[in-house]
Amino acid sequence: MISIDIGLLLLIFTGIFFIVFLFFYREEPNYIFGFRTKRSTASVSNWRFSQQWFSLLAMLFLGGVIVLQRNELMEEKFYQLAVLGSYLLAALLVEIALYLKDSRASTKK
Q1: Which regions span the lipid bilayer (predicted)?
Q2: Range of the structural domain that residue 47 is part of
């Protein structure tokens, strides 16, 4: 039976999407790939900000989870939950940052 490391697979895909975003960047938000929420697709600046930061944070958190699991500091039964949690944490932090960014922009007007 083939064993697939979901954390490593997601880390590779996140890295690929980050590279694609850097080199083949589209100015307008799209609905094919990327971090898509109502707030991230509201403007081009939000789109650019959310793509860069979500990818970086997700790779950082996923890398940390993988290192913990490979060094046997995390049990296998918590590994998949930690992988999902790292993506959710990255998404939550980006959404909070977008909220703060938008709230500061609205108070400056």
Answers
A1: 6-25, 46-66, 78-100
A2: 6-108
